[in-house]
Amino acid sequence: MLRTVALAVAAILAAPAALAQETIKIAVLGPMAFVQGENHWAGAEMARDEINKAGGISMGGKKLKIELLRVDTNEIQSVPDATNAMERAITRDKADYVIGGFRSEATLAMQEVAMDNKKLFLGCGAADAKLGANVEKDYARYKYWFRITPLNSPGLGRTIFAVLGDIAAQIRRDLKKEMPKVAILAEKVMWTEALVAAAQANLPKMKMEVVGVWQPSPVSTDVTAELAAIDRTGADMVFTILSGPVGIVVGRQMGERKMKAIAFGINVEAQKDGFWQATAGKANFLATLDTYAEVEMTPTTVAFVKAFKERFKRSPTYNAGTYDAIGLLKEAIEKAGSRDADKLVPVIEKMTYVGTGAILEFDKAHDPVWGIGKDTGIAVQWQDGQKVPFWPGQVKGMKPFKLPGM
Amino acid sequence: MLQDILVTGLVNGGVYALLAIGFSLVFGVARIVNIAHTAFYMLAAYCFYTLLTRTGLGVAASGAIAVAAVTLLSVVCYRLVIEPVREHEAAVLIATIALGLIFQELMLVAYGGSFLGIPSAVEGVVSVAGVSVPYQRLLILVVAAAVLVATWLVLYRTRLGLAIRATANDLEVANLMGMNVHRVAMATVAISVALAAIAGVAVAPVFVVDPFMWLAPLVTVLAIVVLGGLGSLKGSLIGALVIGYVEAITVFALPKGAFLKGAVALSIMVVVLLVRPEGLFGVAFEEER
Q1: Collapsed DSSP state (helix, strand, coil) of residue A375
Q2: What pTM did the predictor assign?
Q3: Exposed, middle or buried: residue A394 (CB in 10 Å: 0-12, 13-18, 19+)?
Q4: Is A258 in the same domain as A317?
Q5: Residues A348, A360: Cα–Cα separation, whole Å
Q6: Per the CB < 8 Å rule, is A278 touching B1?
Q7: Selected residues 206-245 of chain A with any CB under 8 Å from a CB in chain B
Q8: What range does the domain containing A333 cover?
Q9: Are residues A99 and A124 in the same domain?
Q10: Overall domain count for chain A
Q11: How many folded domains does chain B comprise?
């Protein structure tokens, strides 16, 4: 009798340990009070729920559940806040992996903290090429960094010039202008410098005339002087390189001034659903690079975008690439049969991962490899309140790009 | 290019003048450096946005309610935060910085960091000397002019204005003459914040509404009032136009240095502080009073 009771007590005591499932902790770092952070978190939540619902990550006969940590970096306002957040996530909250980041300056600083701690850091926001260059320069230290989204700035440049070439061809054909005039309007921050230099060098080779470069502050609330100057040059295109709120100001004030020039480039604010409202409906025909639309960039894009919209009642921005980051991590852990970052790095380096925004393969800098059919991003244009995808034209679901007045 | 600079500088100067007048007034007559001044402008913009987009009220009603609500809030803030420390200028400075940051964080919590847009009250553009100017910006110029005239009339043609000027001239004597100096200071703060709120409502449709929209104008407004002379309304107007033109010239003459336009404005402020610490019209205003 006594033996039976003892066994029963032992069984009860042992039960929680047996039932407790191993988890992996992924810290999602982003500016959580802002759209970028909201998308970081939303993408990660979707990935966690889907993977956990399907049983978790298989590793050595075990099933690992994903536990997410929501870490507000406040990086839009403060780089030190971002590094503190990374430090806290790794040392206090004991995160196994870190994903996210948005502002290049902050992500570079956070990269240092993650590398100090040998933590796998999957970037989902910053474009600065230096993040990848660090890997090439000092592989032993920076090998734990991989960029999931967006492309690095040279990669973004390749896409931009490809789209610009197509738009210029349309201007030549429809407006009968052999040498379209382009004004470069780039906010004055680190990540835009390489793109501005590349545009100045490449556009004349592409038979486009650069009429000038204007560089407002990323938080400028007024660009009327810049736009008046651009108007005066007779520009056919305004090549925008903007990630801050000035992108809204540009869209709105170009519309208010009824400028004939078409705006295309990178305008992060224009990627958001709220852009049309924020510009009070003035940004018709403005175009930007983007990542997600209901087009078949990969076999999983349309399903992901639809599911995201249904769950969060808005379209995903590129920061929702945390979904792909977690999916890639799952596949890497399953392939390596280990959760050890040093064992995961060589596996990820050799992987071809079919994500929702791109088919990911990594180069020596641990940057996604650029290529039509792999990872290019897409281009979208605001047409009467709708964000319409138009590039790459060969992808199923793309629609025509429109010039004002045509 | 000259006409571009002339028109753009005038229009932008009008926007700045609208913001600078209230800031200058509260310092000039009540000796309160209200760093939260542009935070009240931000609150008015949010209030206007909320009423306009979520209640279905018209532009005029939304604007009037926003201005009234923010002015009322400023009176509460004055009684609770500024009045108890008013004798200590440094404490007032710190208290108003804290107020501004609290308002910023509250808006961040309530609305998130998204950038919001307000439709223009008047749509369309007009060509002035070959330069396209949206009607909304011309409206701001008109509002700025009307506000300047109204403020002058209140200060120089009413009993309240007389009391405000007397208190500013000599607080002790005004107190001994039986004036309620605290009430006068409160009225000054209310008028000043009402001006900021009017600016918020008028300017919001051409800018972007976000929790940090009060910071950039704060720096510009500081440069303007230092340039014009702290406390001088005439100085604020001229300072605003000077800064508007300096920014326009910077952008037109140095396109790649457009981001420097704020720095150029601040450099002017530093030079004025070194050469003429009282500003362009500081002395004249003292005599005027």
Answers
A1: strand
A2: 0.78
A3: exposed
A4: no
A5: 10
A6: no
A7: 212-217, 219-222, 224-226, 228-229, 231-232, 245
A8: 17-150+297-360
A9: yes
A10: 2
A11: 1
Q: How far apart are CA B217 and CA A236, in angstroms?
A: 32
Q: What is the CATH number of the domain that holds A350?
A: 3.40.50.2300
Percent of chain A having pLDDT more than 70? 95
Q: In the beta sheet, which residues pair with residue A265?
A: A240
Check residue A4 and give its pLDDT. 52
Q: What is the pLDDT of residues A264-295, one digit of tens each?
A: 999 989 998 889 988 988 899 999 999 999 99
Nearest CA of chain A to the CA of B82: how many Å?
A: 27
The Cβ of residue A80 has, within 10 Å, a number of other Cβ atoms equal to: 11
Query: 């075990």: which residue's tokens?
Result: A62
Whether the upstream peptide bond of residue A392 has omega within 30° of 0, thus cis, is: yes
Q: Least CB-CB distance to A280: which of B1, B119, B125?
A: B119
B208 interaction partners in chain A (CB closer than 8 Å) = 221, 245, 248-249, 252, 278
Give pLDDT tens digits for A93-127. 999 999 999 988 899 999 999 999 999 999 999 98
Give the residue on B whose Cα is nearest the Cα of A276: B117
Q: Which residues of B touch A226 (CB under 8 A)?
A: 251, 255, 258
> pLDDT grade, residue B139 (50/70/90)?
confident
The shortest CB-CB distance from B248 to any of A76, A216, A225 is to A225
Residues of A in contact with B251 (CB under 8 A): 214, 225-226, 229
Q: Contact at 8 Å (CB) between B208 and A220?
A: no
pLDDT at B145: 86
- Give the whole-number percent of chain B exceeding pLDDT 70: 97
Q: Which residue has the tokens 């100096």?
A: B181
Select from B118, B119, B208 the Cβ nearest to the Cβ of A245: B208
User: How far apart are the C-alpha atoms of A148 and A355, rounded to whole Å?
Assistant: 10
β-strands A378-383, A287-290 pairing: antiparallel
Angle formed by the axes of helices B89-111 and B37-54, nearest 10°: 20
Cis before A316? omega within 30: no
Give the pLDDT confidence score for residue B179 in this predicted structure. 85
If you average pLDDT over every residue of chain B, what do you get?
Answer: 85
Number of H helices, E strands in chain B: 12, 2
CATH code (residue B91): 1.10.3470
